[in-house]
């Protein structure tokens, strides 16, 4: 895709969602890391409902380790995969204390070593907590990128990330990540995308297919 077409897509989405931002409530890098870990296969809305009480009760890694695993499980039981996530949280907190002085590391390569923290989570943390440009590819970013031709239909998540990094100016990586999420979450939805009201439908092969009217067959009469 040409740089002009990419610019058009970025500017259009920016106009639609100028205030796009991280919707996970947090007040520091540690809370953000916990929130993103909890958000795997779960909506941000549900995570925010759980963390309201969670972040009042647990302030530091020591706090999470001071309770039995079963108690932490109950505190996050509304979250999908809560048992595994509770285990990861305690393991993560133990590693933060043992290796990082209880602080969330700023380096991407150190973040991905933490239990329950993958590449996407690390990208979210470095970009939102530490101001390092990054593009985290979640299900919305992947879907939108492929629909708009910014990535290939069969590309892996890592390939989507690399292609976006090449096409999007580095100083726009983080805000583009948020805007693509908003575009996918509130407009270009997985099941019911708003193709009829989409200013980018002309750039979207799937949108054109969805909007295509049935072809009328010519009568032989």
Automatic annotation (TrEMBL):
<feature type="binding site">
    <location>
        <position position="188"/>
    </location>
    <ligand>
        <name>[4Fe-4S] cluster</name>
    </ligand>
</feature>
<keyword id="KW-0479">Metal-binding</keyword>
<protein>
    <recommendedName>
        <fullName>Endonuclease III</fullName>
        <ecNumber>4.2.99.18</ecNumber>
    </recommendedName>
</protein>
<keyword id="KW-0255">Endonuclease</keyword>
<feature type="binding site">
    <location>
        <position position="198"/>
    </location>
    <ligand>
        <name>[4Fe-4S] cluster</name>
    </ligand>
</feature>
<feature type="binding site">
    <location>
        <position position="204"/>
    </location>
    <ligand>
        <name>[4Fe-4S] cluster</name>
    </ligand>
</feature>
<feature type="binding site">
    <location>
        <position position="195"/>
    </location>
    <ligand>
        <name>[4Fe-4S] cluster</name>
    </ligand>
</feature>
<keyword id="KW-0326">Glycosidase</keyword>
<dbReference type="InterPro" id="IPR011257">
    <property type="entry name" value="DNA_glycosylase"/>
</dbReference>
<keyword id="KW-0234">DNA repair</keyword>
<comment type="function">
    <text>DNA repair enzyme that has both DNA N-glycosylase activity and AP-lyase activity. The DNA N-glycosylase activity releases various damaged pyrimidines from DNA by cleaving the N-glycosidic bond, leaving an AP (apurinic/apyrimidinic) site. The AP-lyase activity cleaves the phosphodiester bond 3' to the AP site by a beta-elimination, leaving a 3'-terminal unsaturated sugar and a product with a terminal 5'-phosphate.</text>
</comment>
<dbReference type="InterPro" id="IPR000445">
    <property type="entry name" value="HhH_motif"/>
</dbReference>
<comment type="similarity">
    <text>Belongs to the Nth/MutY family.</text>
</comment>
<dbReference type="InterPro" id="IPR003265">
    <property type="entry name" value="HhH-GPD_domain"/>
</dbReference>
<keyword id="KW-0540">Nuclease</keyword>
<keyword id="KW-0238">DNA-binding</keyword>
<dbReference type="GO" id="GO:0051539">
    <property type="term" value="F:4 iron, 4 sulfur cluster binding"/>
</dbReference>
<dbReference type="GO" id="GO:0006285">
    <property type="term" value="P:base-excision repair, AP site formation"/>
</dbReference>
<dbReference type="InterPro" id="IPR003651">
    <property type="entry name" value="Endonuclease3_FeS-loop_motif"/>
</dbReference>
<dbReference type="Pfam" id="PF00633">
    <property type="entry name" value="HHH"/>
</dbReference>
<keyword id="KW-0378">Hydrolase</keyword>
<dbReference type="Pfam" id="PF10576">
    <property type="entry name" value="EndIII_4Fe-2S"/>
</dbReference>
<feature type="domain" description="HhH-GPD">
    <location>
        <begin position="38"/>
        <end position="186"/>
    </location>
</feature>
<keyword id="KW-0227">DNA damage</keyword>
<dbReference type="InterPro" id="IPR023170">
    <property type="entry name" value="HhH_base_excis_C"/>
</dbReference>
<keyword id="KW-0456">Lyase</keyword>
<keyword id="KW-0408">Iron</keyword>
<dbReference type="InterPro" id="IPR005759">
    <property type="entry name" value="Nth"/>
</dbReference>
<dbReference type="GO" id="GO:0003677">
    <property type="term" value="F:DNA binding"/>
</dbReference>
<dbReference type="GO" id="GO:0019104">
    <property type="term" value="F:DNA N-glycosylase activity"/>
</dbReference>
<dbReference type="GO" id="GO:0140078">
    <property type="term" value="F:class I DNA-(apurinic or apyrimidinic site) endonuclease activity"/>
</dbReference>
<keyword id="KW-0004">4Fe-4S</keyword>
<dbReference type="Pfam" id="PF00730">
    <property type="entry name" value="HhH-GPD"/>
</dbReference>
<dbReference type="InterPro" id="IPR004036">
    <property type="entry name" value="Endonuclease-III-like_CS2"/>
</dbReference>
<dbReference type="GO" id="GO:0046872">
    <property type="term" value="F:metal ion binding"/>
</dbReference>
<keyword id="KW-0411">Iron-sulfur</keyword>
């Amino acid at each position: 895709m040409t740089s002009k077409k990419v610019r058009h897509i970025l500017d259009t989405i920016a106009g639609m969602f100028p205030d796009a931002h991280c919707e996970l409530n947090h007040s520091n890098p540690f809370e953000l890391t916990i929130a993103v870990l909890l958000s795997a296969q779960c909506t941000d809305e549900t995570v925010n409902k759980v963390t309201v009480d969670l972040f009042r009760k647990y302030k530091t890694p020591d706090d999470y380790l001071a309770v039995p695993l079963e108690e932490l499980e109950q505190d996050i039981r509304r979250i999908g995969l809560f048992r595994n996530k509770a285990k990861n949280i305690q393991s993560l907190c133990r590693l933060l204390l043992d290796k990082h002085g209880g602080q969330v590391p700023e380096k991407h390569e150190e973040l991905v070593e933490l239990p329950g923290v993958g590449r996407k989570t690390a990208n979210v943390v470095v970009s939102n907590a530490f101001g390092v440009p990054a593009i985290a590819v979640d299900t919305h970013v992947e879907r939108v990128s492929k629909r708009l031709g910014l990535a290939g239909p069969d590309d892996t998540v890592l390939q989507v990330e690399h292609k976006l990094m090449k096409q999007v100016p580095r100083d726009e990586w983080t805000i583009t990540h948020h805007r693509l999420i908003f575009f996918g979450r509130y407009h270009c939805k997985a099941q019911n995308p708003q193709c009829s009201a989409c200013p980018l439908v002309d750039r979207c092969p799937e949108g054109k297919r969805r909007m295509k009217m049935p072809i009328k067959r010519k009568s032989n009469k």
